[in-house]
Automatic annotation (TrEMBL):
Gene3D superfamilies the record matches: Nucleoside Triphosphate Pyrophosphohydrolase
Superkingdom field: Bacteria
CDD domains in the cross-refs: NUDIX_CoAse_Nudt7
NCBIfam families according to UniProt: PRK10707.1
InterPro entries referenced in this protein's UniProt entry, alphabetically: CoAse, NUDIX_hydrolase-like_dom_sf, NUDIX_hydrolase_dom
Record keywords: Hydrolase, Magnesium, Manganese, Metal-binding
Protein's UniProt keywords contain Methyltransferase: no
Protein name listed in UniProt: CoA pyrophosphatase
Amino acid sequence: MERIWHALEPALLPLAEPPQPPGWNHAHMSELLGTAVRRPAAVLVGVREGVQPRVLLTVRTAHLPSHAGQVAFPGGGSDPDDRDAIATALRESKEEIGLDPGLVSPLGFLDVFETISGYCVTPVVARIAEHARLTPAPDEVAEVFEVPLGFFLEPGNLRRYTMEFRGHQRPMVEFLHGGHRIWGATAAMMLNLLQRMGRA
């Protein structure tokens, strides 16, 4: 399905021009978090090569202090030694799911996104070699699974709803696939991808 790659790559922010804060949802997050400084973070929106390109996702373990049990992209907070967002996303992906950075080809970025937990996240979109092996770190990741990119591109699979949080009505999106509920920040970042591709 090379046409998916041809549609994906032009929609991304180029590697030479990393996105900068604030996040595209900054106004809404400011209502909830105020003006507190957001901590830098990055995630890997990895798409495995193959006849049917597939997005890599994880299920966080139930004992983690934040977002326990939720579906997420591999990633996390930036370390002082990380050169940039790509370095953060690759380091975290290796730590969380054993992904060899040598099998990852960054393509570009999505827009920066601010989370309710106080992070300013840079999503790094990348191709992952079809033969890449994944080994979840049991203290962080309960499961790794893959969803065809084509599933997200079908308009009927995007579900919209409203959730009340801290007295505010928050517009939300979610995807349901194979018994997994993909919602929150992960779904919002996928929505950003779809919007950049002209699919939402």
